[in-house]
Design brief:
Strand content: 15-25%
Number of helices: 13
Shape: elongated
Radius of gyration: 20 Å
Helix content: 25-40%
Largest sheet: 9 strands, mixed
Distance between the termini: 44 Å
Number of strands: 14
Structural class: alpha/beta
Length: 336
């Protein structure tokens, strides 16, 4: 199943579950171009209708990791605000920030914090924003279920496999106690926040990666397919995709700074034990949009206020109370 079709199917399930939790009503549907849009709505003027109801369009783009959270959030928001249309695109964290800093979107989704060069691009274009946490996630390192030699990898072992210039072609090149099984690597492309986060955490620098790995672009399911098909295969992907893959892959434990082998889970990510491969996921509302389009601020408030239910229904890890309060504090300043 492709990323788009799997995301659309998951969105329907998540929206149905979240409707029960959030007591929302109405119907939404996915547009033919993959963007989430309201059914049967017309373009509305920004700022709201004459009776005070919200109306208008909200353009969102960015991380494929954050999309499965944002799509159901958008659907539920549109159910409560039928005169608002929210379009959610997926071009990766880097691609999303490029559009955002070009003034093409109201909100950018990111699976990592904004980079210095992206900050500079937005500043040059006069684009202001706030960083709002919406969920937590862990990066999962997955291998083929037939791999019976690796259960826990250290950062040094991951580095030996993935760093630029690595000459490891077999698992024994990572650890001499491992067999001489051919090593086959799968990972996302350079526009992915997952790529940026993993390469910095494991190899010490964003973008530092060996050149001969299988680049899957934004399609995390391609990594699942690759790993499931090769005994010596390994990939790094968002935890939610690994969990959805079930028995087709094996999720490895990672040795943290305390020397403990830790599996990714809600508890270990929130407690800070699953290091260095745990991360917070974000949305970035544009200051001008928040100031001039009340529907954008209302959507950000809705998203964060219901982030726990949305994250749990989507298979992600909710914000901690401290993270959620920080996001709500940031929202209070939006448009002020």
């Amino acid at each position: 199943m492709s990323l788009r079709h799997k995301t659309m199917a998951r969105t329907s399930v998540v929206a149905a579950a979240a409707v029960l939790v959030l007591a929302a009503c109405g119907n939404g549907e996915d547009s033919t171009d993959g963007s989430t849009q309201a059914a049967g709505t017309e373009d509305g003027a920004a700022g709201g209708s004459a009776d005070g109801a919200l109306s208008g369009d909200i353009a969102i783009d960015g991380s494929s990791t954050v999309t499965p959270l944002t799509e159901p959030a958008a659907e539920l928001f549109m159910q409560e605000n039928p005169d608002v249309r929210v379009a959610v695109g997926t071009s990766g964290t880097g691609g999303g920030f490029e559009k955002f800093c070009n003034g093409e979107t109201d909100v950018s989704m990111a699976s990592r914090p904004i980079k210095d060069e992206e900050v500079a691009a937005c500043e040059e274009a006069g684009i202001t924003y706030e960083e709002l946490g919406v969920a937590n996630d862990g990066l999962a390192v997955v291998v083929n279920p037939e791999n019976d030699w690796a259960t826990c990898l250290s950062v040094d072992e991951l580095n030996a496999a993935w760093r630029d210039g690595s000459e490891a072609t077999e698992w024994s090149g990572i650890n001499p106690e491992f067999p001489a099984e051919a090593l086959e690597l799968y990972g996302p492309g350079t526009d992915s926040g997952t790529f940026d986060y993993f390469t910095e955490a494991v190899n010490g620098e964003e973008g530092n990666i060996r050149q001969d790995y299988n680049d899957i672009g934004e399609d995390d399911n391609a990594a699942i397919t690759g790993v499931a098909g090769g005994t010596g295969a390994m990939a790094f992907i968002p935890l939610t995709f690994a969990l959805e893959a079930g028995d087709s892959v094996k999720i490895l434990e990672i040795e943290n700074e305390a020397g403990e082998c830790v599996a990714p889970s809600t508890e270990t990510v929130q407690a800070g034990d699953y290091t260095p491969l745990a991360r917070e996921l974000f949305i970035y509302p544009k200051g001008e949009s928040v100031a001039n389009k009340p529907e954008v601020k209302a959507f950000a408030e809705f998203y964060v206020n219901n982030s726990e239910e949305i994250a749990e229904a989507a298979g992600f890890i909710p914000l901690t109370e401290e993270q959620k309060q920080a996001a709500l504090d940031q929202i209070a300043t939006l448009g002020g």
